[in-house]
Each structure stands twice: as structure tokens, then as C-alpha cells.
Design goal:
Layout lengths: L1 H25 L11 H46 L7 H17 L4 H16 L1 H54 L4 H63 L1
Helix pairs in contact: 1-6, 2-5, 3-4
């Protein structure tokens, strides 16, 4: 039986080799002296493109999120400016102005009207301090976001260049493949011949298994006949011995 299995393995190896040859032709053949087909190379480049585009999308989303955060801070800054002193938008300037007014109040003789004006000015300045403090706290946050955005823009520029490079490689491979396929117009007959060989080998494998089954049936049939004959011989021997024993008893 091992002989039949050996024949089948040999036929299947032949089929695998033919299928490999067919795939090479279908996939445009191999590139140069490499073991890589044009289709495999294209699939590899498309996989790279998919990864690069995902990275590009990720960076673009980060930029969008950074812009949204910056816009929130800028909106808050604009509101704070409206609640701050009209002449002083800087916290240090406001504090200096408060010190200056308080110094005038302590060192200068003022009229009632001037005193009231300074008091109102001082109150306006002091009321604008919280807004100025918040404004000062926002500025480094905005700068941090803008610095990160500039970094991401730099990364995005590199990724866009990579996208262009990979796209150019893909287009070059496709053009080469088109040229190769134009020269393979007569390959249909070759493919048909390979397919026919595969069919023939499959038929031969079927025939081998059929013959194996027939041989197995013949073997078991012969074995059954032999066992029957042996049983018959043993039975005849027993009858003879029984007869001899009966004779002796008489």
C-alpha cells in the first residue's frame, strides 16, 4: 500500500509546482532576478501606503485637536481683554499702575475731584487683576500648544513626502506590470496547458486510489478465502479424529 501513497505524493508535488508556475504567470512573473512577483511587490507597497496614510490621518487629527484647543484659549483671551483695563493688558503693567496711584494718594495733595477719579481708576485696575492673571496663565499654555502644532506640521510634511514617494513606486510597478502583461498575451495557451496537466495529474491520482481500493478488496477477499479454507481443513481434521476415537471405543 505504501507504493500507492508514494505515487500519490509524487503526483501532488507535481501539481504544487505547476500551480506555483501558474501563479507566477498570473501575478506578472518575477521582478528581475528576485523571487518576488509583481503582484507581491504591489501588495507590499499598498500595505506600506495603508500604514503611511493612517499615520497621515492620525497627525491631521492631532492638528485639528490642537487647533480646537488653541481656539478655545483664544476665545477666552478675547473675553478677558474686554474685562481688563482699556490701557493696561499686562499684569505687570496693571500692578505698576496700582502702585503708582496708591503712591500718589499717599504723597500728593489731591482735590476732591482728583481723589474720586483716582479711586475709580484704582478700583477698575484692581478688578481687572483676576482677568489679567488668567490671561497671563493662558499665554504659556497657548505657546505650548502652538509649539506642538509646529512639531506635528513638520512630521506631517515628512509623511506627505513619504506618501508621494510610495505612490510613485506603486505607479512605477504598475507601469512595469502593464508592459510585462502586454508581452504575455500568448500566455493563455501556456496557462491552459498547465491547467490541463493539473487535471491529468488529478485523474491519475484518482486512478491510483481506485487501483489501491481494488487491490485492498482483492487482498481481503483472498484473505477471507484462505481463512475459510483453513477453517474447513481444521474441521475435516477434527472429524477424522472423532471417527478414529469412535473406532477405538468399539
Amino acid at each position: 500500500m505504501e507504493e500507492f501513497e508514494s505515487q500519490v505524493r509524487h503526483k501532488r508535488d507535481q501539481i504544487r509546482n505547476i500551480i506555483k508556475k501558474k501563479n507566477e504567470i498570473i501575478e506578472g512573473g518575477k521582478i528581475g532576478n528576485t523571487s518576488v512577483t509583481y503582484k507581491q511587490a504591489l501588495n507590499d507597497k499598498l500595505a506600506v501606503m495603508k500604514t503611511v496614510i493612517a499615520k497621515k490621518r492620525e497627525l491631521q487629527n492631532e492638528i485639528n485637536n490642537l487647533n480646537a484647543d488653541i481656539n478655545v484659549f483664544e476665545g477666552e483671551k478675547n473675553k478677558l481683554k474686554k474685562s481688563m483695563h482699556r490701557d493696561y493688558k499686562n499684569l505687570d503693567e496693571i500692578k505698576d499702575a496700582i502702585k503708582h496711584i496708591e503712591s500718589r494718594q499717599e504723597t500728593t495733595s489731591l482735590s476732591m475731584q482728583e481723589e474720586k477719579k483716582l479711586i475709580r481708576e484704582l478700583e477698575t485696575l484692581k478688578n481687572s487683576v483676576p482677568a489679567a492673571e488668567r490671561f497671563a496663565a493662558i499665554k504659556p499654555e497657548v505657546k505650548k500648544l502652538m509649539d506642538r502644532r509646529n512639531e506635528v506640521y513638520g512630521d506631517l510634511k515628512k509623511v506627505r513626502e513619504e506618501v508621494n514617494d510610495v505612490q510613485a513606486e506603486i505607479e512605477a510597478l504598475r507601469k512595469e506590470l502593464d508592459v510585462v502583461r502586454e508581452g504575455q498575451n500568448d500566455q493563455k495557451e501556456v496557462l491552459d496547458d498547465l491547467s490541463s496537466k493539473i487535471d491529468t495529474l488529478n485523474d491519475e491520482i484518482t486512478s491510483i486510489y481506485k487501483k489501491k481500493d481494488e487491490t485492498r478488496d482483492e487482498y481481503f477477499h483472498a484473505k477471507f478465502d484462505y481463512e475459510c479454507q483453513q477453517n474447513l481443513v481444521r474441521h475435516v481434521d477434527w472429524l477424522i479424529k472423532q471417527k478414529e476415537w469412535v473406532i477405538k471405543q468399539e
